[in-house]
Structure formats: C-alpha cells, structure tokens
Amino acid sequence: MEVVLFREDVICLDVQYADMRPRNCENSGGINMKISDEAEEILEELWTVIVEKKSTLTLKGLDLEKGDKEVEELLRLDLIELIGEEVKLTSEGREEARGTIRRHRLAERLLADILDTKDTYIEEMSCKMEHALYKGVDESICTILGHPRVCPHGAPIPKGRCCRKAGWKAKRVVHPLSELDVEQMGKIAYIHSQEPEKLQKLMAMGVMPGMTITLITRFPSFVFQLGQTQIAVDKEIAQDIYVRLVI
Ligand SMILES: [Zn+2]
Ligand SMILES: [Zn+2]
Predict the structure, then answer these.
(1) Which of 44, 55, 188, 240 has the fewest beta carbons closer than 10 A?
(2) pTM of the predicted model, to two decimals?
(3) Nearest-5° Cα angle at 182, 177 to 184
(4) Per residue in 103-122, is it b (16+ CB within 10 Å) or e — as a string?
(5) Which residues surround ligand 2, an ion (CB under 5 A)?
(6) Residue 62 per-residue DSSP state
(7) Closest ligand to residue 108's CA
(8) Which tens digits make up the pLDDT trace of 63-116?
(9) Beta-strand (E) ranges in the chain?
(10) Ligand 2 centre from 157 Cα, in Å?
(11) Structural domains of the chain, ranges and CATH numbers in brackets
(12) Does residue 220 have a cis peptide bond before it, meaning omega lies within 30 degrees of 0?
C-alpha cells in the first residue's frame, strides 16, 4: 500500500483519486491550440479509468454521445477510437492523455507546495493551470518541485524527460532531505513513503509537513533539527522527506 502524508496532517491511504478529477473545469482558453480544454478533460478521465484502474469506459459512461463536438474532435485528431460502445485511447491519445494528467497533477503540486494554496482551491485552480502548463514548461516546474511522484491527493504523476535526465537546468525548490547540504534549512513540503510504518514512526517523532527543518549531519546518519529536537534517520527515510528550501 502506498501512503502519502501531505500538507498539515492529512493522510491518504491508497487515495481514491477517482473522484478527484476536475468536474467543472470551464474552458480557460489555454494556449494549447491543438486540443480543446474539454477534449483534454476527457483524455484525463480516459487515462484514469483505462490506464490507472485498468477498466473500460463507454461514451455513455463519459456522459457523451457520438456527434458531440469533443468526441468528434478526439476522433478527428486520432486520439480515441470507438469500438462498439467502448471508447479506447489510440497510442497517440495515450501519450496526449499522459501529458495532460502529468500537467494537471504537477499544477496541483505547485499550488500546494510552493504557492501554499488552500486545499479547497487546489482542484479549481489546477484545472485552469494544467492547460497553461504547456509542454516544456512542465519540465521546469517538475524540476523545481523535485520531480514529485504523486500529486497532493496521492495520485501518481507520470514521469517526464526531466525526471530521467540528470543535470536538468531549472533550479529545484523542493528536495528530498537526503539531498540537502549540512546546515541547509527549509520547510517540510510533504512526506512520501511506500511503507505506512515508516510514516507513522516519523509522525510519532513530530515530523510533519509545514515544520521547519535543518540538516545537521549527513554521516553516519542523517541528523536534523526540528524545533528543539534533533532526530537521526537513515538515508532511506531521509529520501522520503521532501523539503521546500527557504529562498
Ligand atoms: Zn490530485
Ligand atoms: Zn521531472
């Protein structure tokens, strides 16, 4: 089970992000000239259901009909195909959907971690931002955020080229604690761990998002200052604590 601790003290256990999908994204007139925002929303839903949940979707399930302008647009661009009632992503559609989901979830991370946006506004704002976070820009944002693997709701962020490439130029703002220099200080942005026990251990020690943290030593273990307390953890745990540097 994947556990994510993010912002304040909200814990999501294998988050049911199916319902996190933007429902009321209006057309923000984004700079993506090729695909309309409405069509992008459909691609996102298709990605969530087909790729992430390994399930299927029909036009009816999408609340759409043949002849609807978004459906026609996606068919014309060769991004979806209709097999009977079922809507399938073409390989090009899959790539496009992957990019859209990535931009949406990166926008959420940006709003939550860097701009400190309140939870209630994140969904609404990220709906608008994803269309503006056009290709290329997402790689800089991803790098600044430390190539996050999950959105604030715990849904996976598909990797970009930047996540695989070392030495990407943009300056990172969020780093795993394990990559900080001695005496570097920041605020805990979020904690991401595959193991619930580790997360519970950290919480029991008072390690929470929003707290100021300073790295004291890197060897033989990672020792950090949190308020009046000094805590030692191994590298594995230090890699799970993501810190927003104070700049
Ligand atoms: Zn999300
Ligand atoms: Zn990246």
Answers:
(1) 55
(2) 0.62
(3) 65
(4) bbbbbbbbbbbeeebeeeeb
(5) 142, 147, 160, 162-163
(6) T
(7) 1
(8) 999 999 999 999 999 999 999 989 999 999 999 999 999 999 998 888 887 776
(9) 3-6, 10-13, 80-83, 86-89, 174-176, 185-193, 212-217, 222-226, 229-233, 241-245
(10) 9
(11) 14-163 (1.10.10.10), 174-245 (2.30.30.90)
(12) yes
Reference 15, options 112, 152, 201; nearest CA is 152
Ligand nearest to the CA of 139: 2
Place of tokens 């014309």: 76
Distance from the alpha carbon of residue 209 to the mean position of ligand 1, in angstroms: 17
129 CA from centroid of ligand 1 (Å): 13
- For residue 174, give the ligand nearest its CA: 2
Q: How far is the CA of 32 from the centre of ligand 1 (A)?
A: 21
pLDDT tens digits along 15-41: 333 334 343 343 333 334 478 889 999
What residue type is assigned to position 178 of the chain? S
Closest ligand by atom to 107 CA: 1
